[in-house]
Design goal:
single chain; 16% strand; 2 domains; 276 residues; four-stranded parallel β-sheet; Rossmann fold
Length: 276
């Protein structure tokens, strides 16, 4: 029987940092079943008091101390949360002190910084990047590829669209995607499709194990040639031959999350994120 624990991700802002950091640690414990609760925007004492009650209630109901991942800046609010009957991992308490000592500069502990774009600028970048991904999805149009930071290519159902949207939302990257059809892949001499030729330096291929692709396609269209294993095997083989023969960098995404795919594309393509 697996162990069960309640985990709270708490922040006076979005709690994304607390979630990301916490998840990266929790996945190391396969034998524990975690019930996850996210409490963002805990930026007043009365909200903190409500969060405190939720944490202590979880302790009463389960008989186990909850675990807290906290990124609360305000010391008064943070101290109230940390007075709960829980095991706390406080990112500011853990990391700010050593950084302050090393940098010999007092932290501002504010919501923004001159080192980064303003909230309004960041929002504009996100919106423009996501709109670009939607407008240039699935080869709908290729006339805007000159504005792309990267153009993802791959056969149908290899994660191109969600990766493009994540790149736009998380990094502010202008990502387009183009589906390699059977017609594209059977071009004589295995040429890069003509519409992609001017942008070949921006191309990044995605591939996947045929068996996994077959399951994904079958969930969408259970019968027919499109979702047959033979068809999947043929398309993947031809796509990978194209990548190798034309020196297109590519990634096998079979066991990867969208976050991992996007981060790998960013790193391998040496793209610079526009938002933090």
């Amino acid at each position: 029987m697996s162990i069960k624990r309640t985990v709270f991700f708490i922040s006076d802002r979005t709690a994304i940092t607390a979630e990301t950091f916490g998840h990266s640690l929790l996945i190391q414990f396969d034998d524990v079943e975690f019930q996850k609760v996210t409490l963002p925007f805990i930026d007043t004492m009365w909200k903190a008091q409500d969060a405190l009650e939720q944490i202590n209630d979880a302790k009463e109901q389960t008989g186990q101390r909850p675990i807290i991942f906290s990124t609360i800046v305000n010391s008064q609010i943070r101290n109230l949360i940390l007075s709960s009957e829980a095991a706390a991992v406080d990112l500011f308490e853990t990391f700010i002190g050593p950084l302050e000592e090393e940098l010999r500069v007092h932290p501002t502990l504010g919501g923004g910084s001159s080192h980064h774009t303003t909230a309004g600028e960041e929002l504009d970048i996100r919106i423009n990047a996501v709109n670009y991904a939607l407008t240039n999805d699935d080869g709908i149009t290729t006339k805007n590829y000159d504005k792309a930071d990267v153009v993802l290519v791959g056969v149908s159902r290899t994660g191109k669209t969600p990766t493009c949207l994540y790149l736009g939302l998380q990094y502010g990257i202008f990502a387009a995607n183009y589906p390699l059809t059977e017609e594209d892949l059977l071009i004589e001499y295995r040429k890069i499709p003509g519409v992609l030729q001017p942008y070949r330096d921006k191309l990044y291929g995605l591939t996947i194990n045929p068996e996994r692709l077959q399951k994904i396609r079958a969930a969408r269209r259970p019968s027919g040639r499109y979702s047959s294993l033979e068809q999947c095997q043929q398309e993947i083989s031809l796509a990978e031959f194209l990548y190798v023969s034309k020196n297109i960098p590519y990634l096998n995404i079979t066991t990867m999350s969208i976050e991992e795919i996007a981060a790998t594309v960013m790193h391998k393509s040496k793209l610079q994120r526009r938002i933090f």
